[in-house]
Design a protein that fits this description.
Length: 277
Amino acid sequence: MTFKDLLEARWRDADTMVCVGLDPELVKFPESLRALPAHDALLGFFKPIIDATAEFACAFKPQIAHFAALGAEAALVELIAYIRERHPAVPVILDSKRGDIGSTAGYYAVEAFERFNAHAVTVNPYLGSDGVEPFLAYADRGVIVLCRTSNPSAGDFQDLQVEGKPLYAHVAAKAARDWNHGGQCALVVGATWPQQLREVRELVGDAVPLLVPGVGAQGGNAADVVHNAASTNGYGLIINSSRAILYASNGEDFASAAGQAARTLRDEIRAARNSHA
Ligand SMILES: O=c1ccn([C@@H]2O[C@H](COP(=O)(O)O)[C@@H](O)[C@H]2O)c(=O)[nH]1
């Protein structure tokens, strides 16, 4: 099954568009786990979180820098294998935002799809087509292209006018038209930018899913995301929240609190969709 098939089945079967971000910050872990070596702390934290949130998740999104900074890539490999075994209906998006000349991008594709065995990866389009093609060569995997990111400075380059349109609109068009021949592409557009979400959805139509980070800790509003960017069938979105779910409690109830936060976000998204229909 391809990433896109898995995602569409998950939207439909679990009726959820919540993406649970897996971004370890050891200082926010419960005290009992902080005392352990990093590898053990990560597994002791994320396995219960994954089990408690999977029911509400359309995807999991580990952010690679958070693991690499701890020298804990082995824990990430183990956690992705755990998700694939215990929760095979929930795709894993490796958030690594890779991009380089084609020959090196090929190694980044091996990293994402063979070393980590992710279903999809985030990719930086700045180097152009030959930097993206090595990822597209894995026909069953998803390639999620940075388009209009959630951060405050996103517009520094992404909003520059090029031939009468902002740069991010060119990225959206390129991904949707030239790179999506195998139906593998999705776009990253931040929840913090409702107007740009609407523009990108209008530009690419329903065929391209949008990965939308920025609800929760960054202040984006899930209802605004749905109202501006859901596809015509009411789905089409992968709405990520990391810190607001993971660190809902730093006590021994951390996993059940994360599950509750994921449930609340799922319900908020459902309510927005129903009020929009
Ligand atoms: O435009 C972007 C692209 C990626 N991210 C990543 O998503 C999560 C957001 O975490 P929160 O704790 O929910 O704020 C994080 O991994 C970022 O690297 C993004 O925020 N914006």
